[in-house]
Amino acid sequence: MAATKTVTKKTNKDAIVRIVATAANDTSTIDLQTDLKLTNETLGAAQKVYISAAYFSTAANVSLTRNSVVVANYFGGGDHIDAEWVLTDQETHDIVVTFGGAGMIMLHLKKIDGYNDPIETAAFGIYDDETVVGS
What we know:
This protein has 135 residues and is mostly beta strands. The chain has a single domain, classed as Sandwich (Jelly Rolls), CATH 2.60.120. 0% of the residues lie in helices and 53% in strands. The strands form two sheets. The chain has a five-stranded antiparallel beta sheet, with no helix packed on it. The protein has a four-stranded antiparallel beta sheet with strand order 3-8-5-6, with no helix packed on it. It is elongated and about 60 Å long. The termini are far apart. The model has no long low-confidence stretch (mean pLDDT 89).
């Protein structure tokens, strides 16, 4: 069965995704190309996303998998915060979250590469026309 996924925060630099499971073997996939993309962003050739923190509350285990490789296992038994690190394993692949039972996890994700921000910088080059947007 599918767990319920909610993107609670999404900017051009990071995202927070909350996933809630009601039973064992509930899964949810965080798709790097659709779930984390802002409407005004364009995608590069590959998206690179780091996992920088996990907040979870579950009585059972939670597993994070990328490209069929388990990159993290969290063991249940209450409320936990796992922060102050950056997980870069399989960074260009979607994140599959699998629950061993009912629970919740929030992942803080850092968008490193592959998301092209349409906002222009304030600096102009010598050949730019300062009166025209996009020059």
